[in-house]
Amino acid sequence: MTSEYSLSPQFIDLKAQQSLIREELNNAVSKVLDHGHYIMGPEVKELEQRLIEFTGAKSALTCANGTDAITLILMAWGVKKGDIVFVPAFTYVASAEAPAQLGATPFFVDVKEDTFNIDPVSLKQAIVDCRELGYKPSTIITVDLFGQPSDIDEIMQIAENEGLKVLVDGAQSFGASYKDRRVGSMGHATTTSFFPAKPLGCYGDGGAVFTDDLNNAEEIDSLRLHGKGVEKYDNVRIGLNSRLDTIQAAILIEKLKIFDEELIMREKVAQNYTQALSGLLRTPKCPKQKKSAWAQYTVITENRVALQQSLKKKNIPSVVYYPKSLNQQEGYASYPSVSSGLHVSNFLASNVLSLPMHPYLSHDMQSYIIDAVKEFFKN
Ligand SMILES: *Cc1c(COP(=O)(O)O)cnc(C)c1O
Description:
- This protein is of the alpha/beta class.
- It has helices at about 15-35, 40-55, 65-75, 95-100, 120-130, 150-160, 215-225, 245-255, 260-275, 305-315, 345-350, 365-379, and strands at about 60-65, 85-90, 105-110, 135-145, 165-170, 175-180, 180, 190-195, 205-210, 290, 295-300, 350-355.
- α4 (about 95-100) links the parallel β2 and β3.
- It starts with 13 loop residues before the first helix and ends with a helix.
- Pyridoxal-5'-phosphate binds near residues 65, 67, 92 and 171.
């Protein structure tokens, strides 16, 4: 039985999720409309408490989006002009944009082909390069790309040897884990995004910072509210206007209730894809000690353009995340990069393709997509 709908898989299906909890969402939003505390209302505090419980971090501070989350923690750490911030070259632009906005210098590091995460070997070389050039290394931003947690033990070891801070950009990995530690509880701090298409998304923009350092948490609480002091109209530092709307917090509280189940459903889709496709193209490798949040299911193939066209003919959407590495972006081309090169990042930018991935991708739909990929490689 194949209905019209079953032949058009969604790349990310937010409607299926919404219809499942529509009544709860309506009630939650309705409650906010009734009490009227649209900014920093009670749902914001409640969500932050639930995020602490979910991640195991000592503090969770919500803010306007995942990019501001990076900016806020870097500000709390005092990152400024003249500081070097190591960033993987293969990531979403926001990972480098936030330090660049603060006047710091993003220094591009290569990634690993099998996990899409920052390559510790390249990172070590970048630190050596940096010192030779007389630059001042300050922070490592490691990105849990496509949902897979970074090799945090290795990265923390490097950072401790060099006296650097580690920020985990977990915009795509909320819900993932590494050796039974949840994303949010690793590095010196973690940031995430609640952009609608992320694993845990709201219906607008949103983000959060997680840290065990309560002094940093207190400072971020001030920074996100124009650098407020004890009283509202007391400004003790230069901050930002970066808060999560109460309505978005109310929505996230409801979505968090079904999130664990959704993570299991995502894992099943990924396993099915990998089992069926690993002989045809390079499928993502997630080592045993990690659990990905599967924000994306991204394959590597030298036949990307033709495969994408062939899928499109069958109404199967696919997306290239990302068509350029950051060093290839006009706005970022002048920033320094590791002397050993960004070969993997550049290769991935030309050869990756992300397939439909969401918890509500039915078994029939998965088979339809798998068959379409198989048929392409038969020809
Ligand atoms: C989405 C994303 C961000 C930024 O999040 P926004 O909420 O869109 O500001 C940062 N880093 C990565 C890796 C992302 O994917």
